[in-house]
Amino acid sequence: MLTGKKIVLGISGGIAAYKMANVASMLVKLNADVHVVMTKNATHFITPETFETLTANHVFTDVFDESGSMHVPHVTLGTEADCILIAPASADVLGKLAHGIADDMLTTTVLPARCPMLISPSMNVNMYENKIVQNNMQILREYGYEVIEADTGFLACRVEGKGKLPKESDLVEYILRACAKEKDLAGKKVLVTAGATKEAIDPVRYITNHSTGKMGYAIARMAMLRGAEVTLVCGDTAIDDPLFVDVVHIKSAKEMYDAVTSRAAEQDIIIKAAAVADYRPAEVADQKMKKKDDNLSIALERTDDILAYLGAHKKDGQFLCGFSMETENLIENSRAKLEKKNLDMICANSLRVAGAGFGTDTNIVTLITKENTTELPIMSKEAVADEILNHIAE
Ligand code: CTP
């Protein structure tokens, strides 16, 4: 996702500097061209050689270091960067940047930059809460820097409190949101559903299906990276909630119905990737049902079809996209659902082909609209999500 992007990591003197090796490595795996700039104090915690090995680029610690191949490195790096992340940002670096002091390689690299700039302060809780430091963060926000709130937890100084560097994958997600994708969905409200519903039989048992939520989560995340304001309504999953997305956790089809229909009118795009139960037990036992010698039948009643409701109440200009999972007659059955539920598009996937369906990281999807049928090859669920959004954006 970061092919062709130049990311500058500015590392200052704090113990969390060691975590930045992982951030650099994760960015390299996303194909970014990663350049590291360190303050002198940062080199006490981790060596430049670590980052040179990970990034295959020269690491700068001194404004007058011309040993790399770059001309006037601090100007070139700052100007050419697609995104700069300063992490950990010490109180000293926050103070300097807030007041335009540029007396080392890190601070001089930041001043000429015009790209998105992220600052992740990390320090002792008392330093973090100090009014001067808080004021400097506020000044930086007003200048357009995005200041990433520190996490709370056990700090290196042996106290619990706010001041921890957020986890590495979160920092990478901030960078992705800042520069990975065109913001072609900016200003759009997108609601996505994901995962399986659970229909209670008694306090112990429930009826569900094999959906893991991966496809819907990928759509929500990609829409967020493309600038949309995203709400994700999802059943229980093992996946961490995506950052920068409003996540609404539900259990039953009824809860999903309430969560989706109450938010539907304000959405520009609704994508229903969830696997919703069509039936639920007609009666839910208050107490655990004890087994008997006889066989047991459970009476089931229909749930509301959320997508059909949305199709019947679609507002002008709203785009409604459903999913369809079939084991036979994929295209005909899916096209019938498109028409019956008044959808603009349906993403059809078959359970019968390897690489598609529940729990996999890939999917094989056919996008069906009133006019067209587009068969996509096997792709990662992220790439499928992007294709779905491309079709909708068009
Ligand atoms: N769906 C829904 N509410 C339901 C059942 C399904 O909103 N109670 C939505 C799903 O989120 C999906 C689409 O309808 O986007 C199609 O779901 P699918 O299970 O493939 O089809 P059904 O319409 O339920 O029909 P059938 O089970 O007979 O194939």
What key phrases describe this protein's structure?
single chain; 394 residues; Rossmann fold; eight-stranded mixed beta sheet; 13 helices; 21 strands; binds cytidine-5'-triphosphate
Can you tell me about this structure?
The strands form six sheets. The chain has an eight-stranded mixed β-sheet with strand order 12-11-8-13-16-17-19-20, sandwiched between helices. Strands 2-1-3-4-5 form a five-stranded parallel β-sheet, with helices on both faces. Strands 6-7 form a two-stranded antiparallel sheet. Helix 4 crosses helix 7. Strand 1 (6-11), helix 1 (20-29) and strand 2 form a beta-alpha-beta unit. The model has no long low-confidence stretch (mean pLDDT 96). It has two domains: 6-179, Flavin prenyltransferase-like (Rossmann fold, 3-Layer(aba) Sandwich); 189-393, 3-Layer(aba) Sandwich (Rossmann fold). It is built from 13 helices and 21 strands. The chain has helices at 20-29, 48-55, 73-80, 91-98, 105-110, 125-129, 131-142, 168-179, 214-225, 253-264, 306-312, 330-340, 381-393, and strands at residues 6-11, 33-38, 83-89, 117-121, 146-147, 151-154, 160-164, 189-194, 199-200, 206-207, 229-234, 246-249, 269-272, 279-281, 300-302, 319-326, 345-350, 362-363, 365-368, 373-375, 379-380. The longest helix has 13 residues, at 381-393. With 394 residues, the chain is of the alpha/beta class. Cytidine-5'-triphosphate is lined by residues 253, 272, 274, 276, 278, 303, 305-307, 322-325, 337.
